Amino acid sequence: MDKAKEKVQRFRAREQRILDAALELLLEHGEEKVTVEQIAERVDIGKGTIYKHFISKTEIYMRLLMDYEKSLTERLKTAVAAAEQGDITAPARAYFESRMADPSKDRLFQRLEEKIIALNLAPEMIQELHAIRNSNASALNRVFERRMEQGVLKKVPAYFYYSTYWALVQGAVELYHSRSFADVIEDREGLMEFIMDVGVHIGDVSGRRSQDEGRPGGESAGPSFG
User: What is the 8-class DSSP label of residue 62?
Assistant: First the structure.
């Protein structure tokens, strides 16, 4: 490997360490208490080195948000391809599993985005983030439309499904952290799985689910996408 390529790789690796450290600190202390100095200390580099990669703390946060959304994009691409091959639950599972795998991180990113938008700190990056998200929504909407044409899903505007997915995740994440429900919820992980299962079956009119549940032992041949 020549020195130029090696230098680029080291630069990118250090940039990823900065992002990883920022996320760790945000989850530990919250966005109001994290400083660039703390991030630099966690990575064991000078504060000035941070600014060789990012112009501000806001840019670090926006990179975390965009990388999170891009990871969902990659999972949805694979899932939509799987749906075309017959795994019709794949897109729904990809969406819910991606966003509900770590409720603390998802909730953090919700707060970060809302604050950055409210303060108008990075309008161009927010626009880019929303373009990625809109692309993900369009990919899911095309799947919903095909399923409605096939009579598998109840016919409503496709965005009803995507909006319901979003609302379910938002509500689930808040419920996961709710102090009001702390004494009621004995199994938070089980509850998250149940909510995810509800999301996967939203709008299902194929009759498969009820038929499967009626089998001896409650065995299922697999859920239908919805």
Answer: H
